[in-house]
Structures are given as C-alpha cells and as structure tokens.
Amino acid sequence: MLKKHIIPFSVVAALFIMAKVFAYQMPLAQKSLLKEEKFNTTIPVTEKPKTEKKSLMAQLNFADETLPLGDRKVERKMKKILAAHTYGNTQTHRLQRKAAEWFPIIEPILAAYGIPDDFKYLALVESGMQAGVSPKGAAGVWQFMPGTARSYGLKVNGGNDERYNLRKSTVAACKYIKEMYKGLESWTLVAAAYNVGDGRLRKQINNQNQDNYYKMRLNRETGGYVYKVISMKQIIEHPVRYGYDKPKELLAYNAE
C-alpha cells in the first residue's frame, strides 16, 4: 500500500518541481529573446536632408522683391554692378561714416511710415558718395529738388534749407515714397521712380506695357539704379564677402 501511495506522490512532486523550473526559466528566455532581437535589429540611419545652397541671384532682393531668376542679362548686369562696389572701387570710409551717422535716425522713421527698411540704402546711393547740390539742383541726404521738397513740407529758401535736416528730409522722403507706392504697388518700381520721377516712370510703364523693372527699357542711370541700391545693401550687410576686412565698422545699422 505504501509503495502504491509513494509512486503517485513522486510523480506529483516531480511535476511540481518541473513547473517551478519552467516558470522560472520563462522570463529568462523572454529576456534573452528580447536582447537577441534588439541586437539583431538594424536601426535605419536617417539621412539629414541636403540643404541646397542658394545662388547669389536667389539671395538678392530689394524690399523682399526678388530679381527674376534664370535671366542671364539681369544676372550679368547685377554681377557687373556688384563688382563695381567692391572694396577697391568704393569710398569705404565715407560709407562707414555715413551709414553709422544716418541709419539710426532713418530706420525708425521708415518703420513708422510702414516703408521697408531697404529704402535706407537709397540715401547712401543718392548722396553717400557725394556732397552738396547736384547739377540739376537736388540737395540733401535724399537729394530733393526744391519744388518737390516744398510740396512735402520742407522749407527751402535762402536762409533755411531743410533738405539738409536728416530727420525732416527723411519724413518728407517717406511721404513721397508712400504716395508713389499707392499707384505703382511695387517697392522696386518706387525706388526706380525715386530716381527718374514718378510721372516719367509711369509713362514708360504705359508705353512699354511692362511693369517689371528688370524687363523695362530705361535710361542708363535709372536702369542701373535699383541694381546699385542692392549692391549697396550687399556690401553693408556682407562686408567681408566684398573685400571689406572690418565688418563691424560697416554694420552701421542697428545690429546690437
């Protein structure tokens, strides 16, 4: 009888021990499988997207209005005028001094009238390289003709010529620029009109049935005017690129 009871008891005990061992080994086996799976899994390497370097023409603009890309004639002209404004060809110290003196006054006035900041470079192009009255009678930082100056609130007489007052003449320039923009609806065209006159430019737009400055046939001075302004902007914002080895002196706008 005892033997009969011992055999089933031994079987049950053996099964119990095997169950314990199996239960203990299961987590270990799972961990081992996870480790092996993790080890064998190849993590795909995500390649960084290649950032295409913009061409020079794609970087250039006036008041966020870009030049026509792919136009070789425009590109050649732009590069030629840029080359004319490199370190060896420009009165560096005069530019530095004028920008440092004028921009902190001009910038907030342009902003107050809602005019793009790039228009401050017109002042450098207009009179940054020269002083006094032009052969046609234009004077001051913004090179106003006497009649235009008076029509925008400036006093021009023998004893008082407010064209030489930077703050007042900038306010007058802003009024003039804003008025031209209402009809032209392009800051690039406004810049060109500042050079040749609003009426003359409108006449050319109508005659040529063309309102893209870069596609228009204009006199030599006006046809290169916006290119010259963009060049001025480039050498002030990227001086080292154009041969100026003292960039801090050229960064005369509010960059603090």
TrEMBL record:
It comes from Pedobacter jejuensis. It holds the Pfam family SLT. CDD domains: MltD-like (cd16894). This is Lytic transglycosylase domain-containing protein. Belongs to the transglycosylase Slt family. Residues 118-215 form the Transglycosylase SLT domain.
